[in-house]
Structure formats: C-alpha cells, structure tokens
Amino acid sequence: MTTPYDRVAYPTTVFAQTNPERLAVLAHLAGLNPVPVQEARILEIGGGNCVNLIAMAAMWPGCDAHGFDLSETAIARGQEIVDASGLTNVTLAVEDICEAHHRYPAGAFDYVIAHGVYAWVPDHVREATMRLAAHVLSDRGVAFISYNAMPGGHVRMIMREMLLDAIGVIDDPDERIAAVRDFLEDYARARDGDEPLATTLRQQAGNMLQRPDAVLFHDELGPCFNPQRLLDVAAAAHANGLTFLTDAGRNRQLDGFLADGADMPDDPEGTVLLAASRDDYAALRYFRQSLFVKQVPDRRIDATRIADLWLSTKIRRQDDGTFVLGDDVITINDDGLADALTRAAAAYPQRVPISAMTGDPKLLRVILQLYTEWYVTLHPGPAPFPVVPAERPCSGALVRGMLDLGETTLCTLDHGVIKIEQPELRALLMAADGTRTVGEIAALDTGIPPEDTLAALTACCSKALMQA
Ligand SMILES: C[S@@+](CC[C@H](N)C(=O)[O-])C[C@H]1O[C@@H](n2cnc3c(N)ncnc32)[C@H](O)[C@@H]1O
C-alpha cells in the first residue's frame, strides 16, 4: 500500500521530549516507580523511519526497542540505519495502528510513544491509537501522545482552509508545495488596517514559510488535520483505563500537579485537567505532549522526590554572579547552590547527582523550579556516554552506522543531533570503533594530526558521540 508518506518522505528526527528518561523523571515526581530505562521495553507508534526510537536503542543497549509505521518506505529506511549500525535491540515493522494489537501483547511495553500521529489521522485511527497505547502499556508504564491542541488549532484550521483552496485540485507534491509557498509569501505581508487576528494569521503564514517542504506537505496539507482539546484526549485515555500524568513540553511539566499548598480536592485529576485546559485557552496553545499512566499519580508537589535524581544544565555563570541561558538571566540567591550549578554547567553534557549538590528541601524546591522553567534537565541516572575516551575509544554504533550511510546529521548519545561534515572528523569517528588504542588511531591517516588525536576524541566525548 502506498501512503502519502511513501510519496514524500517525512523528515523524522529525534525528539528529546519523548525520551523515556524524561518520562521516567515525571513519573518519579508523581511518586510512581517507572521501569529503569536501561532495561525498558519501548514501543514507538507511527514512528516514520523510527530514527527517534533507534537513537534511544543506541543510548541503552539493554533496552528492547520496537517501532512501526504504515509506510513501507519509511520502515525500509529505518531498517537500513539499524543494519548499518549493527544494533541488535531494535525491531521495526510495517504495521497498521488499527491492527497492531495482534502483533504486540498486552502490557508488553514500559514506554509507549506516539509523536505527531494522534491529530494527523482519521477518527478511527486516533481511537485505535489510544486503545493500542492502553493495551500495550505495562502497569508501571508511561505513554507519550503528542497532538495539535486547541484552541490554537482553530487558528491553524483557518490557515489550512486557505492553503487547501490555494492548491485546489493540484496533485503533484512539488506543485502543491510551490502553490502553497506562493500563497503564503503573499499572505504573510502585512496590510494597512490589519486587525489583530489578521496579524496573527500573517505571523502563522511567515512561520509556515520557514518549514521544510516535506513538513508543509504533510503537516499542513495532509488529508487529516484534527487538533484536539486536552479534555477530550484525557477522556479518551480514561475510557481506555489510562490516567493523565502531566505534559512533557517546555514549561508544562507540572500541569499534572496541584498548585503548591493546595488542599487535596475530591477529584485531583479533574482539577489539574481543568486548570491545564484553562491555561491552554489563556495561552492559545497549539501543541501538547501529554503523558498517561495506569497507576494513580500523587499530584502533590514534593521537591524532596528529586533528591535521588541527576541534573545537567547549560546555564552559564557571569562575572556578576547571575546565570544566563539564551536571553534569560537568572539569579540564584544561595551561594552553595550557585556554586553547585556552576560545577554542573562545567560538566555539561555530563550529569551530576543532585545528592552531591544539596539535600536541603528549600533548595530542592529551587532546583525543581529551574527544571520546570527549562533551565536544568533532570535525569534518573548518569549519562550513557563517557567524559574521556576509553582505552580503545569507541564512537556510538549509530554514529558509525549513519556515517557509513553518508549521513551528515548524526544522532548523539544524549538524544540530540549534530551536523558533522569535516572529512577528518568523520574518518576519526569511523576509526574509533573500539578495536584500536588512541595511539593506533593516531597512526592512521584520518587527516587529524597524531598529536591532536586524543584532544579530538575527548571533544567527541563532550558532544555525546562516544560510547562507554
Ligand atoms: C506526521 S508523521 C510523524 C512521524 C514521526 N512520528 C515524527 O513525529 O516525525 C505521521 C506518521 O504516522 C504514520 N501513520 C499514519 N497512519 C498510520 C497507521 N494507520 N498505522 C501506522 N502508522 C500510521 C505515517 O505513516 C507517518 O509516518
């Protein structure tokens, strides 16, 4: 069967917010006992070429990663990447969401991920997606489901109507994209007397012009575009025995928790859902990344729960003692915590145990706040990559596999991507396959001066390209 995703490949990449480590941290915050990622069974639903899942499998050789998609072309590409990398803990399949319960047994997965699927499929497939997530999720499991959300989705619907008019009956993908780009370029120009809503739509048009062709083709012009209200998604989850845990998106991680100091309401889940959906209206939210579980979360915020987690951060201390991240400037009023954060930032992308930073509940609350505001990341344990090269340095199996396939954008072992085009760096990463010492790699003709080899390999460690 040929799907639109066979006609035009979707530029699937990695999505750090789907990472089971993040899901585990949020479950842990709610007093649950998620399965350690190193030994977890993971399923990605409608994963395209499943490179997001493959990157997870490369991070934790002990996990058992399964992914499927309806598009044969996408799965064939994913399989090519798995084969080139020699990863033995990934199984990919061409499968239909509506039939997948026959393939995957009940309770078979500890983490279930459906990114970019739920609002882009017909109603019966959307219902089957939630049913499948509930069917395969283990009792301690966490499911991730992202979707275009309301009320921002209404704005996207206005745009979509205009775009579909602009393409009319054009079928050829390239011509569809060209017609849409023509329309958007004209529409994005401000007009005299624009009402605020018109200005918003023109900004949307401008944003859409920045998207790659294949994303425009599928996300905006695909046959299905059904933004969802959080309350409806949660009701669908409930009907299948799942409970809303929280949201994995930026600044939304506490959506599933009660306000600090609030009395325990009769219906904690209903209370947090109502507050979160009111916030969606206030923020005109466009996108949600909701998490669901089978257990009952404790929705009281208890910062002491983070005491046994690990932390990484990119914030940088300035001469005046403040910290910066992007355009944001943060002040930490406790000297001990400020010093601990400075040390953690110096160790980035490595992680430091929070127990070595502080045990003070007040400071743990500050760290939780920094996490909520996206200044630090919390992790269940140490990073799956070394600080310095091993005696026989070994780049990640997926890194070498992707290099072998000629890819220039490589998946890292911190679930990110990095562009590496320099031939000497590519040769170095290929040579570091765990069979040679640093000296033996230096003696090869990689293009990197022998005396710089160790420094170059250490730099590769700091980019999460080397495995332990
Ligand atoms: C917008 S893409 C998202 C792909 C990937 N998860 C991502 O976020 O980049 C939607 C994916 O859902 C898949 N899909 C749609 N209907 C499906 C079905 N009935 N069964 C399995 N996969 C399906 C498509 O083939 C496509 O790869």
Name the helicity range: 40-55%
- Total count of helical runs of at least 4 residues: 18
Distinct small molecules: S-adenosylmethionine
Oligomer: single chain
Terminal Cα span: 42 Å
The radius of gyration over CA amounts to: 23 Å
List segments where confidence is low: pLDDT < 50 over at least 5 consecutive residues.
Answer: none
CATH architecture of the largest domain: 3-Layer(aba) Sandwich
CATH topology of the largest domain: Rossmann fold
Strand residues, percent: 15-25%
Instruction: Please provide the count of β strands.
Output: 17
Q: Assign the CATH superfamily of the largest domain.
A: Vaccinia Virus protein VP39
Please tell me what the overall shape is: globular
List the domain count as a whole number.
Answer: 4
Return the average pLDDT rounded to an integer.
95
**Largest sheet entry:** 7 strands, mixed
Helices and strands: which structural class? Answer: alpha/beta
- The strand line-up of the biggest sheet is 3-2-1-4-5-7-6
Q: In the CATH hierarchy, what is the class of the largest domain?
A: Alpha Beta
Kindly describe this structure.
The protein is of the alpha/beta class and 468 residues long. It folds into four domains: 4-149 and 227-293, 3-Layer(aba) Sandwich (Rossmann fold), CATH 3.40.50; 152-220, no CATH class; 303-379; 394-467, no CATH class. 41% of the residues lie in helices and 16% in strands. It contains 18 helices and 17 strands. The protein has helices spanning 4-7, 20-29, 51-59, 72-85, 100-103, 123-136, 152-167, 173-187, 196-209, 213-220, 230-239, 268-283, 335-347, 361-372, 397-404, 423-431, 438-443, 453-462; strands spanning 41-45, 64-69, 90-94, 109-114, 137-148, 243-247, 287-293, 310-313, 316-317, 323-325, 328-330, 352-353, 376-379, 394-395, 409-411, 417-419, 466-467. Strands 3-2-1-4-5-7-6 form a seven-stranded mixed β-sheet. β15 (409-411) and β16 (417-419) form a beta hairpin. α4 (72-85) crosses α15 (397-404) and α8 runs antiparallel to α9. The chain is globular and about 65 Å long. The two termini are 42 Å apart. The site of S-adenosylmethionine has 21 residues, from loops.
